[in-house]
Amino acid sequence: MKVIYNKYIPPGNFTAINIFGIIFARKEYRDLSAHILNHEKIHTYQIFELLGVFFYILYFAEWLVRLFQYKNKIEAYRNISFEREAYANDKDPNYLKRRKLFSFVHYYKKQQ
Predict the structure, then answer these.
(1) Which residues lie below 8 Å from residue 60, measured CB to CB, with a gap of 6+?
(2) pTM of the predicted protein model
C-alpha cells in the first residue's frame, strides 16, 4: 500500500485518507501505526468491492443521512457504515483474511 505524506491532505485533524487505494497522510503523522494502516486497508477493500466511484458516492450519501440523524459532523463521520467496520476491526491484523464481501452492510444500522 502506497502512503504519501504531505502537509495538505487530509484536511483538519484527520490523520489519513484513502483515495482509490493510495493513502495520503499528514507529515506530522509520519510512520502511521499498524492499526491506522489496517484501518486504511479495510477501506481499500471496501473501495475495490464497490468499484471505486460507488464507494465514494455511498460514503458521502451515508454521511449526509448520518448528519441529519446526529446533527454533528464528527458523529456523522464516525457512524458511516464503512468507518464503523474499519474502526471495529482495525486492531485485528487478520480481519481482512476472513472478511466477507460487503461486510460494511452489517454496520449500517444506526447506533443507539
Answers:
(1) none
(2) 0.93
